[in-house]
Amino acid sequence: MAAQEPSNDRRTFLSNVAVSAATLGFANVATATQTDTSPNIEAPTEFQVWLNSIAGKHRQVYDAPEPNHGMALIWSYVYLLTAAQGYNVPESDVGVVVVLRYAAIPIGFQDALWAKYKLGEVFKINDPATKTAALRNPFNNIKPDDMPIPDAALDKLVTRGVKFGICNMAITVYSGRVAKQMDLSAEKVRQEWIEGVLPGVTVVPSGVVAVNGAQSRGCTYCFAG
Predict the structure, then answer these.
(1) Is residue 166 part of a domain?
(2) Is residue 55 in a domain?
(3) What integer pLDDT is reported at residue 42 of this predicted model?
(4) How many Å apart are CA 142 and CA 164, to the nearest integer?
């Protein structure tokens, strides 16, 4: 299946990030961070709780900024299998994190979003069966021949303990772009996308901070394309 970069280039994405940062209040957070040097004694954030739940002794994080034919999922499956064999440990001792950011975020969405917002067209992802822009998620609850390794489907990896994070910043930018094209409320579309995240996938502040956080919890880094 084609898994190319969306038609608007990274420069457009980055300019939209600046606007989205203001919308999300990130600019104020950044200012506060520069002036407030007091230790953080508050309760852990939801993101920190997610990081702290990463299990296993042998940990790996896959950084997925593009769909790349679902390779982040396939490599996660391979790591689960071979790390358990290679280290002679039970699979429970193997921890895997996949961070869906930038153009890989549709991997973490339910079929209804793919159909309503034509995400296959937006992200240039074809349905393996029809060979046209996908109106369903071909990486989750898959049909025969959707993926070369069926057990690498997202829902099957979730049941085996793989943790998925999806970038809130990318959701904000892309949903805003789509909302503008469809003449819809950006905030309503953004909220619908967040509500349409698949079970087992956690919305994280950004993909880059999730990659950083996973590494801080002992995950080795692997770029998933």
Answers:
(1) yes
(2) no
(3) 82
(4) 17
Residue 181 lies in a domain: yes
Among residues 98, 102, 80, 96, the alpha carbon closest in space to that of 3 is found at 102
DSSP 137-164: -TTSSPPTTSSSSGGGSHHHHHHTT-EE
Mean pLDDT by 10 residues, the chain (225 residues): 46 56 47 48 91 97 98 98 97 98 98 98 97 98 96 98 98 98 98 98 98 98 96
Give the CATH number of the domain where residue 180 resides.
3.40.1260.10
Residue 118 domain flag: yes
- Cβ partners under 8 Å of residue 145, min gap 6: 128, 129
What's the pTM?
Answer: 0.85
Return the structure tokens found at 202.
């956690």
pLDDT of residue 40: 56
Residues 6+ apart with CB under 8 A from 197: 108, 109, 110, 166, 203
Q: What is the rounded distance in angstroms from the CA atom of residue 84 to the CA atom of residue 94?
A: 7
Domain range for 119 is: 10-30+60-223
In this structure, which amino acid lies at residue 83?
A: A
> Residue 223 carries which side chain, given as an amino acid letter?
F
User: How many domains, in total, are found in the chain?
Assistant: 1
Buried b / exposed e across 36-47, counting CB within 10 Å, b at 16+?
Answer: eeeeeeeeeeeb
